[in-house]
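User: Thanks for the earlier help. One more: PRD domain-containing protein. Can you show the sequence and predicted structure together?

Assistant: Of course, both are below.
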Amino acid sequence: MSSITVAKVLNNNVIIAEHPQHAEVVVIGKGIGFNRKTRDRINLSSVEKMFILRSQEEQEQYKQLVPQVDEKLIEVVQEIVLHIMQSSRQPLNEHIHIALTDHISFAIRRSEQHIAIHNPFLYETREIYPEEYSLAEYAVERINEVMEVTLPPDEIGFVALHIVSALSNRHISEVKQHSQLIGDMVGLVEDSLEYRIPRESLDYSRLVTHLRFVLERLRRGETVRETSSLDGLMKREYPEMYMLAWKLTKVIEQRVHIPVYPAEVSYLTIHLQRLAQKKEDETGMEE
């Protein structure tokens, strides 16, 4: 029967072990290191909850991180990661153990020092990644409860991006870049229309969702069918919104370095025209 051999106990919840298939590994499990000594053998079948960091680089980073953080944090992050795996039913990039532990540890320190970090893309993150945002709400709620802290709502957005990164196997910087890009584009639309789109409105949700799908199509390399008749109609009927849509696609091209299909301009014009009409209707009602 397969077992692991304890090489080093980092704390009650984390050990370095020799694994029959994966050589040296970091094993994370509630109480797995309690009363363990070097060379102790642990039957794999008796370990109910375990995560194995197989990458040597990930292991070294985690070994350095563990002594710097509260054991309770290791435990609650493990619980959160399990919850994410069970809820999403998708494999997670193992780096989330390091990224989330490190991020939350730093966030708690900031909170204790009363240093507030504003998240300018909170609404965009919630709209673009609703499922991950919901998981992040659970995570922050559990952290506040277990660690007896009060992390601000802004942290939900940051944690959501880490969850997106782990589920999609994309680097956190790329995930952040997309949220920031969408936030910047919404700002450009609002400046052009001289109209602030209510963040809880269906209009805002539609616009952000559309921009998200444009970026997702580009990331996956999907082609968008040309519709020359629609393109001509949009250009003729709504020249201002067509020009704004064209500007937005140019911003996308500059930031992600991928050419945008011309058909995207036409579809985006339809969304922008709906917003422009909404503004006119509201202005007319005020008068």
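User: Great, one quick takeaway?

Assistant: The longest strand covers residues 3-11.
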